[in-house]
Structures are given as C-alpha cells and as structure tokens.
Amino acid sequence: MDAYITAMLVFAGFYALMALGLNVIWGLGGMVNLGLVGFFGLGAYASALLTTKLLLPMPLGWAAGAIVAAAAGAGMALIVARLRGDYLAIVTLGFAEVIRLVASNEIWLTNGTDGISNIPGPWRGDLSPQGFNLLFLGLVWSAVAIFFVLLARLSHSPFGRVLRAIREDEDVAAVAGKPVLSFKVRAFAIGAAVLGAAGALYAHYNAYIAPEGFAPLLTIYIVLALTAGGVGSMRGAVLGALFLIALIEGTRFLAAIIPGVSPVQKAALREGAIALTLILLLRFRPQGLIPERTRTKAHA
In the chain, what are the domain boundaries? Predict the structure, then answer.
C-alpha cells in the first residue's frame, strides 16, 4: 500500500506540473489548449531519445524536453494566432494527435508502437523500487515547487497582468499598445515548456514510453484538474491535480467493495461517481476550489 500511495503521489506531481503549464496558456492567457498531451509527449520523447541514443546525462535530457516543447509551443502560437475559442481548441487537439501519429509511424526514430524502453532513471539500479519511488517523489514535487514559485511571480508581474488583459479582451489590449501576438507566443512557450518538463520526468520515471500513453484522455484529466482547482490560480492548479488523483483512485477502492455487481458494472459505477462528483463541484463551486485573485498583490 505504501508503494501504491507513493506512486500515486508521483503521478499527482506530473498532473500538477501539467496543470501549472495549462494555467499559463489558458488560465492567464485565455487560449484554450487541448494539445497538452502533445507537448507532454514531445518532452518525453526528446529526453528519452537523447539519453538512450546519445547517452546524454538525464538533467540535459530534462532540459531538452522542456526546450523542444517550448519551441513547439511558440510555433503553435504563431500558427493559431488568429484563432479563438472552439477553433483554437480543435487545432491544438489536432496537433496532439499528429504528434501521437508521428510517434506511431516513424519507427526509425521512435520505434513506433513498440515504444522506447530502458530509459534511465536516477539511481534506478542502486535503489529498491520503493526507494526509487521516494526519490522520484521528492524530485517531481521539487520541480512542482520551483515552477509554482516562478509561475506565481510571473502571474503577478506586469507580464501576467497583460496576459489577463488579453484574456478578457485582446482587442482592447491591442488598442492599449500591447503586442498581443508576442505575449501569446511567450505564454504558449512558457506553458509548453512546463508540459515538456513534466513529460521528460515521466519518461525517466516510467522507464518506457509508447504512443498509446499519450492519448487525449490525459488532456481531459488535466483540464478537469485545473477547472476543479480554479482556472487562473496557481494554487488551484496544484490542489486540483491532487483532488483529481484522489477522486480517480478513491473511487477505485469504493467500487471494489460494492457487493453483487460484476467488474464491468463496478467500472461503470466508478466512472459515474467521478462524473457526478465533478458535476456537483462545478455546479456549487464554479470558480473552483481556490478561485483566482486578480488584485495586484494577491497570492497565487
């Protein structure tokens, strides 16, 4: 049970990093991004390839994963600069699917659907499985803490205030003399970098990645986590990730103890419980668990 809880907390850290990245793009900048898993996958593949094929040190692989995802995010922002709302969501979702299809078909680079295995992890062979999980737990949540502090400061800086102005009405921000496109590109790049860093860490934790691990369902989970926590709030992004993991895994145990139902029915009840909980949360707490505070000196 201890190993299970530790592993779930590690994954909660991955979710928190992704929610923080999404919060910059969507929460502050107002740009709907359903391509999260694409940037996550880019970071994972970049770090995995560099550390397994070129034998680069893991920290360089992690940094490369963030840089590659940031570059892709900047390019994406330039492409979709004039799109808003549903159109932006569809294009970003398509981007994520393109990344997954490329990973599935470019066998010479990604090994196709067989994936990449034997990805190194810090002291993996020297520690027990539980020791490795604990080490990675500290590593992932240290990354969450660092990005949280940096992004919280960014949120309350003049840059963050301009992003909020663009989110509310980009035409007004443009009339006020703000270079809207430049701010959008930088916000996309910063958010994508955090997503790429999360993917890079995931690859080295899991030791194996394959295209099916980067399905759109992961994007939906992160959007739900941020929505539940509070769109625009950095603290809400982290709390929402923890809440979502607790909800997903907690319902697994509740469904298991229900007598007289088949495994298929238990799975259906579990999904229904998750959906009902999120619906009730959004009905009675639409602003999220920790709403955004827009005062200049507010906390994240």
Answer: 2-215
Q: Read off φ and ψ for residue 115, nearest 5 degrees.
A: 75, 180
User: With contact defined as beta carbons under 8 Å apart, do 183 and 29 qualify?
Assistant: yes
What pLDDT digit, counting tens, does each position of 263-296 carry?
A: 888 888 888 888 899 899 989 998 999 998 765 4
Instruction: Give the tens place of pLDDT for each residue, 56-70.
Output: 999 999 999 999 999
Question: Is it the case that residue 300 has pLDDT exceeding 90?
Answer: no
Tokens representing 251 are 């319902």
Q: What gap in Å lies between CA 44 and CA 66, rounded to an integer?
A: 9
Token output for 133: 């999980």
pTM: 0.93
